[in-house]
Design goal:
Helix content is 39%, strand content 19%. It is of the alpha+beta class and 562 residues long. An 8-stranded antiparallel beta sheet has the order 5-6-7-8-9-12-17-16, with no helix packed on it. It has a 6-stranded antiparallel beta sheet with strand order 10-11-18-15-14-13, with no helix packed on it. Strands 1-2 form a two-stranded antiparallel sheet. Helix 7 crosses helix 8. It is globular.
Length: 562
């Protein structure tokens, strides 16, 4: 009997595969032939998770695993959009019950770069003008609730005519699922039926061409992790299908990305717990499955540089990356990220807890397959705290919702990294994305309890993970202080707030001028409205509300740590 792939893996790689597969086995629905989303009792299925599970089954290859993987891959391929004139051509439904996106109303290939940005801005202006005129005519009340409801109805009508990205389709499913197909083909073509291989190849012709069209039009800009996947699948399938135009496109894109990386030694998607894990996974694919020596060499150089960036902002005592974060969901590295998985592969036995289960754990078999390659100079920072340090690094961000001719800004990410406290500050960013965290603090108490503080914003009544225009932050940091300037050039009511997470946060320990938190106290000077202090089970919020026309559209904060 042929040796199974998992048997050729290291102890750490086997651990990752077995742990991840034990979780995914529980979420597999035999009747549907798909994987349910990673929430208990979820009735929804995930095509991306199903693809990752199929790859894990091929790696494990126990009894009936191959048959299940083949069925899963067929079912995922069933979810592909084949609509050559539509912007979502070649991507995949995120779940089987998703409604069809609108079609036939958006001639996106004939539009100049920047049209998507122009349309979004125009619809916002039309919505604001319509609301103003209806209020002036007395058709609707001149209150925030009526205005907000009208804007929602207007946006809903637009979305029923033009396919709304991230709502009716996810363009990135093209790249994620294509990467799985490439790896499955590269590793397991000898055990997969010819009919499935042919079907995957046909699907990849649609997916890669759709990805290239997206890239060339710049209708939906690609953040770094999608850029890397785009270049990999175009390179891999360009060689597989002997498409000279695809090979040349991949090479041009890779060389351009390397030039940009060399300029500041950083990616646009900088210091991101969430997306660095994807970046490292895909660069591992470049290393393992790249066809040409030059393509593999470019990937190796960026992979080493990325690890050096991680090492700069990593604190081995707190076992976390410091902020500021260009894009991230969570402050805790192990919440919505695969970084801990890579660190476990580097550090080995005794660090299994770094690879604990989270919503990204379905990627772990793929991560185990591509492995890890850390440069020697980064290793000491990952193993122990080498001493307190001030880190300053620049990167050229991508403002993906801005005009493509003006969507790159030079930012400075500054961090103080001490033995038990890290403070991060971002300056220069003009990103509209709520995942950009411009001011952050991590610390731990003498008893080892961890706490996090971040400055974020939200439209009143909404969540923070949205795009909001006209709100910018500029922050600075030292070993004992964090300062932030906030500009609010917007007509919306906005809450700017410090979110503090950790146990035993008590209202009696907080005043507007001083926050006495377990393990850390800070004096607060705020040129801002009086804060509303909100306390929950595991976190607190210090909320400063901006009301257009009633409060100043500038705020500033100075936190001095004691």
């Amino acid at each position: 009997m042929a040796e199974r792939t998992i048997e050729r893996m290291s102890k750490e790689q086997q651990y990752l595969v077995k742990q991840s597969m034990a979780m995914m086995d529980r979420f597999y629905d035999e009747q549907a032939g798909l994987l349910r989303s990673f929430e208990e009792n979820s009735a929804q299925y995930s095509t991306r998770a199903s693809a990752h599970y199929a790859l894990g089954l091929l790696i494990r290859n126990e009894t009936a695993d191959l048959d299940r993987a083949i069925r899963l891959l067929h079912n995922v391929l069933d979810m592909q959009f084949d609509a050559p004139e539509e912007i979502y051509h070649g991507t995949f439904r995120t779940r089987p019950d998703a409604a069809d996106p609108p079609k036939g109303n958006y001639q996106w290939k004939s539009f100049a770069p920047g049209t998507a940005h122009f349309l979004e801005q125009t619809f916002d202006r039309i919505s604001a003008k319509l609301t103003h005129d209806l209020q002036a005519e007395g058709v609707i009340h001149a209150d925030a609730a009526d205005a907000k409801r009208l804007k929602q109805l207007f946006r809903k009508a637009v979305n029923q005519v033009l396919p709304p990205v991230w709502i009716s389709y996810d363009p990135n499913w093209r790249e994620f699922i294509a990467c799985v197909c490439a790896v499955a083909t590269g590793e397991f073509a000898d055990v997969l039926p010819e009919s499935l291989l042919q079907r995957m190849d046909h699907a990849m012709e649609l997916a890669v061409q759709g990805s290239i069209d997206r890239r060339l039009s710049d209708a939906i800009p690609m953040n770094t992790n999608i850029e890397l996947m785009h270049m990999f699948i175009t390179h891999y399938y360009g060689h597989r299908f002997q498409r000279e135009d695809w090979m040349e496109h991949a090479d041009r894109q890779a060389e351009a990305l390397l030039r940009e990386f060399d300029q500041y030694g950083s990616f646009a998607e900088f210091n991101t717990t969430t997306y660095y894990g994807v970046d490292l996974t895909v660069l591992g694919m470049w290393r393992r499955y790249g066809i040409t020596e030059r393509f593999r060499g470019i990937g190796a150089k960026m992979e080493a540089g990325l690890w050096n960036n991680i090492a700069l902002y990593y604190n081995a005592n707190l076992e976390n990356l410091s902020g500021p974060f260009a894009r991230a969901y969570d402050m805790e590295m192990r919440e919505h990220s695969s970084i801990g998985v890579f660190l476990y592969m580097v550090l080995g036995e005794g660090y299994e807890y770094l690879a604990g289960m989270n919503c990204e754990s379905g990627h772990d078999p793929l991560i185990a397959l591509v492995g890890v390659n850390v440069p020697d100079e980064a290793l000491p920072f990952l193993r122990s705290h080498p001493g307190d340090r001030l880190v300053v690094k620049q990167f050229l961000e991508l403002c993906e919702r801005n005009d493509p001719t003006d969507n790159r800004t030079l930012c400075t990410a500054k961090a103080w990294i001490g033995a038990n406290r890290m403070v991060g500050a971002m300056s220069g960013s003009r990103n509209t994305n709520g995942q950009m965290h411009p001011a952050t603090v991590h610390w731990r108490t003498d008893q080892g309890e961890k706490y996090y503080l971040r400055l974020i914003r939200r439209e009143v009544g909404e969540g923070w993970n949205t795009h909001l225009r006209g709100i910018t932050f500029d922050a600075d940091v030292s070993d004992s202080a964090l300062t932030v300037e906030v500009a609010l050039d917007t007509t919306e009511e906005i809450e700017v707030y410090f979110e503090i997470r950790g146990p035993n946060l008590r209202p009696e320990d907080f005043t507007p001028a001083r926050w006495n938190m377990p393990g850390l106290s800070c004096e607060v000077q705020a040129a801002a409205p009086e804060p509303e202090m909100l306390f929950f089970t595991e976190h607190a919020e210090m909320v400063y509300r901006y009301v257009p026309g009633k409060t100043a559209n500038r705020m500033s904060f100075a936190l001095k740590f004691c």
